[in-house]
Structure formats: C-alpha cells, structure tokens
Design brief:
By secondary structure, the chain is of the alpha+beta class. It is built from 10 helices and 13 strands. An 8-stranded mixed beta sheet has the order 2-1-3-4-5-6-7-8, with helices on both faces. A 5-stranded mixed beta sheet has the order 10-9-11-13-12, sandwiched between helices. A hairpin with a 5-residue loop joins strand 6 and strand 7 (about 220-225). The N and C termini lie far apart (about 60 Å). Bound molecules: 2,5-anhydro-1,6-di-O-phosphono-D-mannitol and magnesium ion. 2,5-anhydro-1,6-di-O-phosphono-D-mannitol (AHM) binds near residues 161, 162, 252, 287 and 291. The site of magnesium ion (MG) has 4 residues, from strand 3. One of its GO terms (cellular component) is cytosol. Its main location: cytoplasm.
Length: about 375
C-alpha cells in the first residue's frame, strides 16, 4: 500500500522528546537541548564510520592492484604519489581514476576513529551548555566543564565501543548515561560515582546496517532509526519490551576455561537443557551495543562474566554496564552482576569494571538462582 510506503506523520526524536517534556510543566527544555547535542554526535560518528569503512576497503583494493603490477612492496600498502600516478595511467578505466582523484590520498595519516569520535562528543556536550562533568572511556580523567559553559547534567559515555570491529565493517556503537549533579555546587567525581539507579536517562546508538538510537529517560524504551535522506532519527521502535524468555545466549566462550562454577553451569544448561526445553542458540558479535540490541529485540541473555584472569569481567560500570542495565530494566528485563542488581552497584572509580548478566527476565532469574545456590 502506498500509505505504508510513505509515512507522513514523522515522529522525529526531537519532536518525541519535546512531547515528553510538555508532560512536565516545570521543565525548561535543558534535557532536550542536551539530547540534541548527543544526537549530533551520533550523526557525525555514523557518517565517519561509513566513510572509514568505505575508504579502508577502497585503499585495500587499490593497494592490492598496486601489488599485482609490482608497484608496492610486500608489506608496504601505501603507494607513493608517483606510483599512484603510474598506476592510474596503467588502469585507465574511469572508475579507478575517479576513485584515485576523489578518495585516495597516498600516505595520508587518518585520525583513529575512536579518538575522532571522542573529540566530537566532548565538544558537542560542552557546547550544549548543559553539562558540568563528563566521563569518557577514552579519557583517563573526568572532564570538568569550565564554569561559563556549565549546566546541571553529568554525562558518562563510551564514544565508540567495539573498536576491534571497525576494520571489518561489523556493527559498533556509542553508549551514554546521564546523571543530575548532586547539589548545585562545584562538580566533582562524587557526581558520577553514583549507583546506576540514579541515572535520569541512558541510551546507545548502533552504527550497523542502519543507524539506530535507543533511548530511555525513565519511562520505557524507544528506538529511532536515522533516515539519511532527512538527517533525522525517526521513531521506528516505540515502547520496546524484551521477551520474557529468550532462545539465545551470547558470551565469549573462548574464556570458558577460566569461568566460575555458576557461569559454567549456566552455559552448559543453555546447550544441554535438563528440563526438557530446547537448547539455546549462540550469537556473539563482540560489540556490546550490537549484542545488547539483539538481546533487547529478540530476547535471551548477554553475559560478560568474571573469570580467573579478570575477576571483575571486562565491561566498564559507568558507561557500559549502567546504561545497558537501565535500558534492560526499562524494557522489562533484568541485569545482574553475579552479586546484586547491576543498578545498585556503587562505583568507587570512574573506569571500574563489573561482571554483567543481562536480558530477558526469566533467563536472568536462572543465572541469579545459580549464583544464590553457590553462596
Ligand atoms: P572495547 O572498549 O575495547 O571496544 O571493548 C569493549 C567490547 C564490548 O563491545 C564487547 O562486549 C566486548 O568488548 C567483547 O570482548 P571480548 O573480545 O573479550 O569478547
Ligand atoms: Mg568500550
């Protein structure tokens, strides 16, 4: 139907957040402004990720051609300008010349994508005028915003998570969480070392086959997809609820030899269920945003447990564990650290790690029971 092919009532993320805001007459629109700056960061990273994937593939392809006709050395994939000219002349096809002229700059140093993304987010957040302290996975120290640009929000974020997936074009993402400053005074680390349940909002943006932003401001979870022709995030997944029980488990099984008893028992049960249910499927991308996104939409469980080598697991409390746990609970799922509800944890350091088990309510119930039995 034509009516389905072209939606005419577009709920952009800005309109959505302004609608929500109008339900709180006391609100002055600060949150909407902050969010629009986060959204800008996400759009920038989305475009940078797409360009990088395209350019690195193109460069690999050109370097391959250079090697084929003996212009490039064994290991060196950067051809000199002169070599590239010869190369472009010997392949006088339009396509190659066009590519060379438009995209290939021999020897060009590219700023790493995660560094670039961090710079963009920090600048977007500071310039919003609504933040006072920022914690980024890329910066060792928290950033205290200069007084003239301060607002009441504290933002914790991982600008580009899953960086090992960048070069092969697999989904990566940005994760963020938002707190309110504790009192009106000088911002300090105490403002971000709060338990996750104090977060006002959390979300992630996934740079995958499409660019999807999932957000919760404490009353449910909503998903928006970037329409590249409009440059706008449009509401495509209203009020996301995770299935109560799932058929998928997601974990790095390569660490199995170092797992503790309850984790090992749980994964064994996924593969060889003893209660007559069918075995679960294994899906693991190695990008938290993508693995959590699938878990949210299809149900199941995502685990990054503790192991003998890393007793606190791998994932970071402030900008990985908390925002994803916040979203899971808002969607009707659960998140557990192996000891307690993830959002109850009180971090002592900004880059602290914690084990995490999150997903469908019933699946997380099972792993909680195994840890309880251990005590
Ligand atoms: P990163 O910050 O180095 O990108 O690491 C975080 C990523 C997560 O996205 C993902 O869940 C996890 O590391 C995967 O780790 P592993 O490769 O150990 O399975
Ligand atoms: Mg990370």
């Amino acid at each position: 139907h034509n009516a389905d092919a072209f939606r005419t009532d577009l709920m952009t993320i800005t309109r959505f957040v302004l609608n929500e805001q109008s339900k709180h007459p006391e609100s002055r629109g600060d949150f909407s402004i902050l969010l629009s700056h986060i959204v800008l960061g996400c759009k920038f990273v989305c475009s940078a990720v797409n360009k990088t994937t395209y350019c690195s593939q193109l460069n690999t392809c050109l370097a391959g051609l250079a090697k084929l006709i003996g212009l490039a050395g064994e290991t060196n994939v950067q051809a000199s300008e002169e070599q590239m000219t010869i190369l472009s002349l010997s392949f006088s096809t339009h396509w190659l010349l066009l590519c060379l002229l438009q995209h290939y700059v021999p020897g060009e140093e590219q700023k790493k994508l995660d560094v670039l993304s961090n710079e963009v987010f920090v600048k977007a957040l500071v310039s919003s005028g609504r933040t006072c302290i920022l914690v980024s996975e890329e910066d060792e120290d928290a950033i205290i915003v200069e007084p003239s640009k301060r607002g009441k929000y504290c933002v914790v974020f991982d600008p580009l998570d899953g960086s090992s997936n960048i070069d092969c074009g697999v989904s990566i993402g940005t994760i963020f969480g938002i707190y309110m400053i504790k009192d009106g005074g000088e911002p300090s680390l105490e403002d971000v070392l709060q338990p996750g349940k104090n977060m006002l909002a959390a979300g992630y943006c996934m740079y995958g086959s499409s660019c999807t932003l999932v957000l919760s401001a404490g009353s449910g979870v909503n998903g928006f997809t970037l329409d590249p022709s409009l440059g706008e995030f449009i509401l495509t997944h209203p009020d996301i609820k995770i299935p109560k029980k799932g058929k998928i488990y997601s974990v790095n099984e390569g660490n199995a030899k170092n797992w503790d008893g309850p984790t090992a028992k749980y994964v064994e049960k996924c593969k060889f269920p003893t209660d007559g249910s069918s075995a679960k499927s294994l899906r693991y991308i190695g990008s938290m945003v993508a693995d959590v996104h699938r878990t949210l939409l299809y149900g199941g469980i995502f685990l990054y447990p503790a192991d003998k080598k890393s007793p606190n697991g791998k994932l970071r409390v402030l900008y990985e564990v908390f925002p994803m746990s916040f979203l899971m609970e808002q969607a009707g799922g659960q998140s557990f650290t192996g000891k307690e509800r993830s959002l109850d944890l009180v971090p002592k350091k900004i880059h602290e790690r914690s084990p995490i088990f999150l997903g469908s309510y019933d699946d997380v119930e099972e792993i909680k029971a195994l840890y309880a039995a251990e005590e």
